[in-house]
Structure formats: C-alpha cells, structure tokens
Amino acid sequence: MEVNNSLAEASIELAESAAIALDGIISSAETISSMNMMISTATDQQSAVANDIDQRVVNISDIAGHTKDDAQQVVVAINEVRNEAQALNQLTQQFHLRDQQR
Q1: Beta-carbon-side half-sphere exposure of residue 39 (alpha carbons within 13 Å)
Q2: Is 1 helix (H, G, I), strand (E, B) or coil?
Q3: Cα–Cα distance, 15 to 32 (Å, whole number)
Q4: Cα distance between residue 101 and residue 44, in whole Å
C-alpha cells in the first residue's frame, strides 16, 4: 500500500510539473502568436509605405519628364527670340547707317 501511495504521490508531482510546463508552453505560444500579429501588421504597414513611395517616385519621374519637355521648349523659344533680336539689331543698324550717311 505504501508503494502505491508513493507512486500516486510521484504521479501527482509529475502531473503538476507537466501542468506547469504546459502553462509555460502555452504562454510562450501566445507570446509568439502576438509577435506574429505585430510582425504581420508591421509588414502590412511597410508594404503600404513602400507602395506610397513607389507611387511618389513615379509621380516625380513624370513631373521630371514634363519639366524636361518644358525646358526644351523654352530653349527653342529662347533661340527664336535670339534670332529675332539679331534680326532687329541688324535692322536697327541699317537705320543708324542711313542717319550717318545724311
């Protein structure tokens, strides 16, 4: 009978130790699950930020392309104005020459 009592007590102690270990495992699993949720949320947020940055880079690229086109048009217009100014300058010089010949 004493042997049975000793075995029963040992079984109870083992069961209690197992319950404590299982509580630790459950607590660790809950912590890991919580961390996974935080990582998932952070990943989603980073993905959204990356998409936003990507869209902004595309917008900047588009604006840069338009600015380049506009700058090229300005260069063409400046060349036309310069040519017109030179032509006007030549006409003005002709008037001065006529005044000097009188």
Answers
A1: 6
A2: coil
A3: 25
A4: 84
Q: Round to whole Å and give the CA distance between 82 and 71.
A: 16
Counting every residue, how long is the chain? 102
Q: How confident is the model at residue 101 (pLDDT cuts 50, 70, 90)?
A: low
Q: Calculate the alpha carbon distances from 48 to 35, 39, 52 in Å.
A: 20, 14, 6
- Cα–Cα dist 72/65, whole Å: 11
Note the pLDDT tens digit of each residue in 11-69: 999 999 999 999 999 999 999 999 999 999 999 999 999 999 999 999 999 999 999 99
